Amino acid sequence: MFTVRPWGEVYVDGKHVGTVPPLYKFPVSPGKHRVEIQNPDFPPHVQTVEIQPGAQVDVRHTFLPKEQPNPFQYLWKK
Question: Which of 18, 39, 57, 77 has the fewest beta carbons closer than 10 A?
Fold first, then answer.
């Protein structure tokens, strides 16, 4: 089951399987799989999951804004 915020394009083993949301479930064979979630406004999220026969794996990811440099960081240096 996929939970992605705000949204993302999901790839399993390099194959596009859909957009989350609305996609939230996708059948995958047992074994190790590479999951990549892309959103053009954020760096991609990549993880490997191992699925046991008959099991369900939850993949959750929240894209966070890229860290912005502190414009005052050099003013406070001693």
Answer: 77
66/40 Cα distance (integer angstroms): 12
pLDDT at 64: 85
Cα–Cα distances in Å, from 31 out to 28, 48, 50, 59, 70? 9, 10, 5, 15, 43
Q: In which element (H, E) is residue 18 found?
A: strand 15-20
Residue 5 half-sphere exposure, CB side, CA atoms within 13 Å? 4
Express each pLDDT in 60-72 by its tens digit.
999 987 666 666 6
